[in-house]
Amino acid sequence: MSTDAAGEIRGTTHGTAPTPLSVLDLVTVGAGRTASDALRTSVDIARLAEARGYHRYWVAEHHSMPGVASSSPAVILAHLAAHTDRIRLGSGGVMLPNHAPLVIAEQFGTLEAMAPGRVDLGLGRAPGTDGATAAALRRSDRLHEGADDFPQQLVELTRFLDDDFPDGHPYGRIHAVPGPVQATSPGGVQSPHRPPVWLLGSSGFSARLAATLGLPFAFAHHFSAQNTLPALDLYRENFRPSEVLDEPYALIGVSALATDDEKEARRQVLAAALNMVRLRTGRPGLVPTPEEAEAYDFSPMEREFVASWNSNVIHGTPDAVRAGLDDLQKRTGADELMITANAHGGDVRLRSYELIADAYGLPATA
């Protein structure tokens, strides 16, 4: 990793935002819409985010969920790279146990060649799906072994990215291409950049590992809010300076939706919550419309889940969302806020990022 790695990690704050703002995209597919529609929305949001000064745009790996079309982050990121010029692009994240480390090194080396100096590699240890789908992905039903082996997989991936296996290692003559080996070939010239590695987590395991290795850490506050402060404390207290970072850098994923009026925000987050109810009860589907959610007969247990889920979704008018984001940043001390907007319609999601940018006075063209 080059010594200027921290410069590729730390973002720039614009307007009155308390930290750099970024985007997390699940490429959600609403009822009556197609995956093609969702991917077009992703391009529109990425372009808006770039123009308005959002720092990075990450895509999350999920599988076997009809309402989430982000099963192949590297493919989507290549598409977004072709439609943007400056914004950082990355995975939030690649679920490493689902893949051979060499494959990920090759994929992200290719992305780095497409978009030099603006690719992030965020890694998680969860499957991003249910156990049966994870078994199909990994060709094994020993799923706990993949999670337990995560630190070793991370070391292997990093050595492929840096092309620095020690002498005598079984993989010493194997090279991830595109990658550093091209600079050592006759006549070779190689980019000075390689994707910075981030560790993602929703508990303390990755927080502690990121701290030990001196890596940046991304915490999934949007679905594990109760663990946010303990995980961030663990990360900061155990952080060891490295060639990558001399001090901790933590971003948190935040579910936030801004609309022009408060009632519409409530309608949209109710639909997103119904989608989560169905997912958590083994009935994953497309994101329902607000009308379907309003007509749905929630059971008492489902209503309790919806209330709990939506208590961690910052939603409402732009001013209300700005206040909620400001408060969350103060409570957590997060170095960066990565916003995910979950709604049925792509136009609603696009409008939300625009309204949040306006609320913070982000530049019209960054």
Task: Briefly summarize what is shown.
With 366 residues, the chain is of the alpha/beta class.
Structural features, described:
With 366 residues, the chain is an alpha/beta fold. It is 45% helix and 13% strand. It contains 15 helices and nine strands. The chain has helices at residues 5-9, 35-52, 73-81, 101-114, 131-138, 143-148, 150-162, 181-184, 204-213, 228-238, 262-280, 290-295, 300-310, 318-332, 346-359; strands at 21-25, 56-59, 88-95, 119-124, 197-201, 217-219, 250-258, 313-316, 336-340. An eight-stranded parallel beta barrel has the order 1-2-3-4-5-6-7-9, surrounded by eight helices. Strand 3 (88-95), helix 4 (101-114) and strand 4 form a beta-alpha-beta unit. Helix 3 packs parallel to helix 4, helix 9 packs parallel to helix 10 (228-238) and helix 11 (262-280) packs across helix 13. It is globular. The model has no long low-confidence stretch (mean pLDDT 93).
